[in-house]
Amino acid sequence: MNDSNETIEEFLAEHTSDVEEAIRKAAAAEILPRWRRLAAHEVDQKSGPHDLVTDADRKAELYLTEALVALLPGSVVVGEEAVHANPASYGAIRDDAPVWIVDPVDGTRQFVRGEAGFCTLVALAHRGTLLASWTYAPADDRLAFAQRGKGARLDGERLFAGVPEPGRDLRVATSHPDYTTDEQKDALLGLRADGVAPRPCGSAGLEYLAIARGELDAVAFSWEAAWDHAAGLLLVEEAGGAHLTLAGDPFRIQGGNTLPFTAARDAATARRVVGLLSGGA
C-alpha cells in the first residue's frame, strides 16, 4: 500500500465497520465463551501474580492479528502477548509500516475473577501518530470509536469529556503499586492532597473511556506499554481531553516518556495533575 496517512484515512473511510466487526467476532469466538468458565490450566502468570494471561488473551490476539492485517495489507500488529513472547517485536511501533496496537483482554485480572470490567483495545497508528482507536467492552456490548480530527463516539453517540465540576474533589484513577518504582510512588503521593480523590485503577481502557464520558476526571499511570494506552489516549483527545507526562510533554506511544503521566478531561486538569505529581500545588 501507499504509506501516506491520506491513504490510511481512505482505508478508515471504507473499512472502519470491518475493523469493528473483526473485534466483535474475536470477542464472540475467543473471549466471551471463556468468561466465567476459565479452567485453571487456561490461566498463567507472566511477570508475577498481578500480571496474568489466559487462553482468551492469546487466542483473541491471534484472531485479531490475522483479521487486521488482512484488512490492511502491509500493516503489522504489536500485540501484548506477541511482544511478551518476542520483546523485539515492540519496535514495529517506531517503523514506517502502519501498526495495529492490540490488547486482546485489557483487565485480565478482572476477567479471571469473572467481573465485567475488561475490554478489547485496538488502535491504528503510523509513524508515532494515533489515527483511530476502538475500545470494546464485550460483557456490556459497548463499543467506543475515535478517529483523529473526527471526534469520539460510544455506540454511535458523540462523546464530550467536559470539565470537572467546580468544588468537587478531583476523581483520579492511579497505577497499581506493583507497577511503580519508589520514585513513582513518591510522585503519586502528590495526589493525596485536599480536593483530590485518588483510587486504584481497573482496566486502563475502561478508565480512559470513563474520562471521555466525563465520569472520571483523570488518570495517573506509571507504565508505558502502548497496548494499554494507545486506544484510550486518542479516545480522550477526541472527546476534548488532554494528556501530559511529568516533563510536561504529550505522551508518546513510541516510548521514552517521563513517568508518571496523566490523561484528563481537559488541559487545565492535566496540568493540575502533573503539578501535583511534581510536588506542586
From TrEMBL:
Annotated EC: 3.1.3.25
InterPro entries cross-referenced by the UniProt entry: Inositol_monoP_metal-BS, Inositol_monophosphatase-like, Inositol_monophosphatase_CS
Keywords: Hydrolase, Magnesium, Metal-binding
Catalytic activity, as annotated: a myo-inositol phosphate + H2O = myo-inositol + phosphate
PROSITE patterns: IMP_1, IMP_2
Pfam families membership: Inositol_P
PANTHER family: INOSITOL MONOPHOSPHATASE (PTHR20854), INOSITOL-1-MONOPHOSPHATASE-RELATED (PTHR20854:SF4)
Protein name: inositol-phosphate phosphatase
Protein species of origin: Streptomyces tibetensis
Lineage per the UniProt record: Bacteria, Bacillati, Actinomycetota, Actinomycetes, Kitasatosporales
